[in-house]
Description:
The protein is mainly α.
Amino acid sequence: MAAPTGNPPLGEIVRxxxxxxxxxxxxxAAHIGMMQREFVDRRAWLSQxxxxxxxxxxxxxxxxxxxQVAMALGARRAGWAGLCAAGSCFILxxxxxxxxxxxxxxxxxxxPQAQGLFYGAKPVMVAIIAQAVWNLGRTAFRxxxxxxxGIACLAAALAGAPPIAVxxxxxxVALLVARLRSGSRSAAGFALAPLPVxxxxxxxxxxGLAAIFLVFLKLGVVVFGSGYVLLAFLKSDLxxxxxxxxxxxxxxxxxxxxxxxxxxxxxxTFLGYLLRGWAGAAVATAAIFAxxxxxxxxxxxxxxxxxxxxxxxxFLDGVNAAAVALMASVALVLGRATLVDGWTWALALGSAVSxxxxxxxxxxxxxxxxxxxxxxxxxx
Length: 380
């Protein structure tokens, strides 16, 4: 665990992460863009390089990467207490909002419509991600080999390469280039291979709380990539293997996770409620996020040491270049799907100007965009 910066009050951790938890729509790339603006640009808790190191290391971990970045930031600021406060404040608003949707779904048989909210909020998210890519890219691509790696990683991501493969290959190539340039044969290599985990109930298991806990704990340990990769794992376990839910129920749960702020992994809250009510929601949420608290603490402890080791730093430079490229690919894909008319283009461009020229807080832009989207959809 990184040493805390003095003894900051926990309120310094709670307030910004609670605000992020309430307003961080748009998926991991948007969340990281908001954190970069809040904690690097505005609060100066750490440098661009240090932030990139945290992002790159968390992208190599299973679980919700943006949630782990939030936890690692809290850990750097106030140790384990900061980690727990940051993680809880970022997760709980999403979990509670998703729980409310699950209650409405069970009671009324459908989800409240949120097209207007998406219509207005997503163009703002495109601008936030684009600004983060620009700011972080200036640090990640500071040498031409890293810039070339970023272009190659962007092409690979747009072609459909798995994110974890893009990260590891980029890091490995950067390490190899560094070794060739230094002529050293003593630099240590890396062997990063996630251990197979076989937790979870068998096909005949009932949906007891213990079974729910084990299944969602396994998902928190083995799901690499963004929160959207979770869909494939949930289908394999809960629909195909255990037959606990139907495919339409799964799609509704994932929709609930997307239309609420914070991590998409809060989908687990919705599914837990479907399986065993309030207790199932609490158990599923705790189980899927529990591994992240431990892994984010490890990142906080090792990040500084990694940067002080030349071979490890070279590997991390390659991972950082890939992480920024992955964020750029999300911005391009989201932009194509989101900027569909004059209003969405105006929202995106206006948000970009507000962020860059006037440095308006991204939270207010998101709320304004969501409100305007509801108004525009209401009168459309």
